[in-house]
Amino acid sequence: MEEVREEEGFGGEEETSAQEEAEGASKVKDLASEVEELSTKVKELEKERDEYKERLLRVQAEFNNYLKRTQKEMEEFRERAHEGVICDVLYILDNIERALEAAEKGADKESLLEGLRLIHKQFKEVLKRFGVEEVRALYCKFDPNLHQAVMQVDGDEKEKDETVLHEVEKGYLLKGRLLRPSKVVVCRYKPPENGEDRKEQVKPDG
């Protein structure tokens, strides 16, 4: 009876060992499957990374080309703008040369003045076409944003305090933006001293 029991116990151990081996093999298989799945995902991510990298490089190259093209277009635009300004200035230069030629030939003073007035008018029209306009200054209130005071003159009229009395050099705006300020002489109110503005009144004897 004891021998039979021992054989039965030995058989149970073999079954347990086989079951554990089967479970181990199953786990290994599952791990191998997971590893293979992860490996596949890694490859997919690497492929996606390479695609993004290639796309980024392509976009960067396109952007660099865009910058170069834009820079070239800006340079061409500036050149064309300069051409327009130069052509207008050359037209005025022609008139100045005609005026000088007339002066050398002994033209009368009035004719020369008329020619200079015409040139001055043409020059102002050219500036206006390009958005240049004069800063209002004379007899206006002093504005530090537009005017530069080069001198102050005392005055006894309070209403003229901080008023521009003389324009030394004209100021200009370029499309509303200050190009250069007007250089001006400004009045500074100085109250009269006591009794200075009073007239003595003589009372009749009585």
Overview of the structural elements:
This protein has helices at about 1-105, 110-130, and strands at about 130-135, 145-155, 165-170, 170-175, 175-180, 180-190. It is of the alpha+beta class and about 210 residues long. The strands form two sheets. Strands 1-4-5 form a three-stranded antiparallel β-sheet. A hairpin with a 2-residue loop joins β4 (about 170-175) and β5. The longest helix has about 100 residues, at about 1-105. It starts with a helix and ends in a 17-residue tail after the last strand. Residues about 195-205 have low confidence and may be disordered.
Summarize the structure.
Helix content is 60%, strand content 16%. By secondary structure, the chain is of the alpha+beta class.
Radius of gyration equals: 48 Å
* Main beta sheet: 3 strands, antiparallel
Shape: elongated
Please work out how many helical segments DSSP would assign. Answer: 2
If you average the pLDDT, what whole number results? 84
* Sheet with most strands: strand arrangement: 1-4-5
Report the span from N to C terminus: 173 Å
Please describe the structure with a list of short key phrases separated by commas or semicolons.
about 210 residues; alpha+beta; 3-stranded antiparallel beta sheet; 3-stranded mixed beta sheet; 2 helices; about 15% strand; disordered C terminus
